[in-house]
Amino acid sequence: MSSLPNSLKQVALFFERLPGIGAKSASRMAFYLLRMPEPDLQEFANQIIQLKQRTRRCKICMNLTENEVCSICDDPVRDRAKITVVEDVLDLVSFETGDIYDGVYHVLHGRIDPLNHIGPDDIFIETLLVRMRPNGKAKKVEVQEIILATNPDMEGEATAMYIRNKLHEIKSEHSLTFAVSRLGYGMPIGGNLEYADYMTLRKAIENRSKFE
């Protein structure tokens, strides 16, 4: 890469910093941009600049949006009695891609990870708790279920347990009746028991259902 013009080299180095992009892929992407027509390249640059300037967090659920409230929270058809809590916006996108869920969300933008110095105050847990507490103003839609959909790893489980405990405190304090649930985990369709790790098998046993 040392023989490349500095501007091209810097673009390639930037692409290499992106997740999942190696040195060769980064160089190909830089060359692709160089071959783009000038108007297209200018439009691409403008969109990147506007990405940061226009994107904000939804004031209700912390999803990404260009408005005060995201399209999901603004959708009158959505079932506001169900809130699914996810770690990241990409997790929300996975739910929406499958068209399997009609409730609303809360995006934490992270998870509790003490090894990386990320605690409960560093992610959007408190904003979820605020959504659940009665505020004395106009009556909120009564939430019937909170679905904790953090990832099934050590940090995700710790985050789910912390939120569960906080939600139980709110239920007790305000005499609320909503349920707190956790996504079921276990053997995937097409999976083979021979290659399953013990945690997957444990979750499969715990989340077993009747087969009648």
Automatic annotation (TrEMBL):
Which BP terms in the Gene Ontology apply to this protein?
A: DNA recombination; DNA repair
Checking InterPro entries in the record gives: DNA_Rcmb_RecR (IPR000093), Rcmb_RecR (IPR023627), Rcmb_RecR_Znf (IPR015967), TOPRIM_dom (IPR006171), TOPRIM_RecR (IPR034137)
**Domain called Toprim: residue spans:** 81-188
* Gene3D superfamilies for the chain: 3.30.60.80, 3.40.1360.10, 6.10.250.240, RecR Domain 1
GO MF annotations in UniProt:
DNA binding; zinc ion binding
Instruction: Report the stretches of sequence that form zinc fingers (C4-type).
Output: 58-73
Keywords recorded for this protein, A-Z: DNA damage, DNA recombination, DNA repair, Metal-binding, Zinc, Zinc-finger
Its biological purpose is as follows: May play a role in DNA repair. It seems to be involved in an RecBC-independent recombinational process of DNA repair. It may act with RecF and RecO.
The record's family statement is:
Belongs to the RecR family.
Q: What is this protein called?
A: Recombination protein RecR
